[in-house]
Amino acid sequence: MSDSPRNDQAHEHVYIDTDEGLAALCAELASVPYLVLDTEFLRERTYRPQLCLVQIKHEHVLAIVDTQVIEDLSPLVTLLLDERIEKVFHAASQDLEIFWLMARRVPAPVFDTQLAAPLLGYNEQIGYGNLVSQALGIELEKSQTRADWTRRPLPDKQIAYALDDVVYLETLYLKLRRELADTGRLDWVAPEFRAIEAIEKYDQPAGERWKKVRNIARYKGPALAIIQALATWRELKARETDQPRNWLMKDEVLTTLAQQQPADKAELAHIRGLDRRTREAYAAELIELIAQARQRPPEPVPAFKKKIKSTPATLARVKLLDAWVHQRAAELDIAPGLLAPPGLLERFVAGDGRAALPGWRDALIGESLERLASGESTVRATQAGLSLQAV
Predict the structure, then answer these.
(1) Cα-Cα end-to-end distance for the chain
(2) Using one digit for the tens of pLDDT, what is the confidence trace for 285-341?
(3) Do 70 and 181 reside in the same domain of the chain?
(4) Do 31 and 18 lie in a common domain?
């Protein structure tokens, strides 16, 4: 293969598989205002995603970068970290995680079409194929969704599939951005973009991993201390060996170890679900870890926000507010679940009030919900829908 133009099923592009070719491509794109990007990777058997391809588009430039064979990816990293260039993705989080692992920085600024689309009436969390279909009237080929991206040479069908992910994404981006600007909603989505650029989303200390164990608040004393020690050990070992953490030990095995606290290899052998390879490779390490952890106090469990217990009266108030949210969502052509995410109205009624409304939502529905919740206003059904009226 070489850095040469190709034409696979209608998309003319350049396939980059040399350091020199990548450097030339990045130099050509260094002054553009935006880049449309997607990645293909595998993660089933590794802790870190194995990056296989990066697809890039800007106007007439369409390229596939073969990250498996290029030795020096630094020109690509430099390009992605250039804050003068807007980086366009659909459902950006996994792509951004890959680039964060490469550079320990998150490419910014970002425009995520999955986050932008609901502000124009599309469903929340809409998939790329569905958005292309609904917004552009184009049905994408789906047969390569589970393809092996490590194989070389790549079949033409896989290349065409990979290119589709940026060819139509550029058209979507330009359309959505224009419509958001025309409706005065471009600033609304900016905080959502900044949230996915936050380094805290990707830089997760191993010592914090125990907080994600299901029902962690149930455990106390030595059992909690053991869970904390084992979860940290598992995370570090998964990174060291580059294998999925659950291959080493699933959460339910981790909590079983914390409850039964085996003191030797014989007791460890009776822990149900503990992978044989993990037990044989790390038995002494695990036993010592458990023995040490049970002798020290655990870290305090964060104060998790308790689920609001609804009474018939509060549920009725929530349903009243929800009816008005649906009315406003229809008027604004926004998905109701985006305007008032699940649980938001419960928190509003439970006492949080307008503090429960993140970002731009308060300006759109804060005052009306407050008046409804306090009884200052009510809703009236009309032929056109619902209207708000003072009491």
Answers:
(1) 74
(2) 999 999 999 999 999 998 866 666 778 888 888 899 999 999 999 999 888 888 988
(3) yes
(4) yes
In angstroms, the CA 378 to CA 111 distance is 39
pTM reported for the whole predicted model = 0.85
Assess contact for 268 and 262: CB atoms under 8 A. yes
Can you name the residues that pair with 66 across neighbouring β-strands? Answer: 53
* Phi (first) and psi of residue 42, to 5 degrees: -120, 145
Range of the domain at 372: 312-390
Q: Any residues with CB less than 8 A from the CB of 280 and at least 6 apart, and which?
A: none
Co-location of 107 and 195 in the same domain: yes
Same-domain check for residues 84 and 196: yes
Q: 183 and 134 in one domain?
A: yes
Residue 61 has pLDDT above 90, yes or no: yes
For helices 276-293 and 251-260, the axis angle rounded to 10 degrees is 50
Establish whether the linkage from the previous residue to 191 is cis, with ω within 30° of 0. no
Residue type at 76 in one-letter notation? L
What φ, ψ does residue 390 adopt, rounded to 5°?
-70, 145
**Is position 326 within any domain?**
yes
Question: Could you tell me which residue, 161 or 6, shows the higher pLDDT?
Answer: 161
The answer to whether residue 306 sits within a structural domain is no
Q: Where are the alpha helices (DSSP H) in 16-110?
A: 19-29, 74-80, 93-103
For residues 226-235, average pLDDT: 97
Residue 301 in any domain: the answer is: no
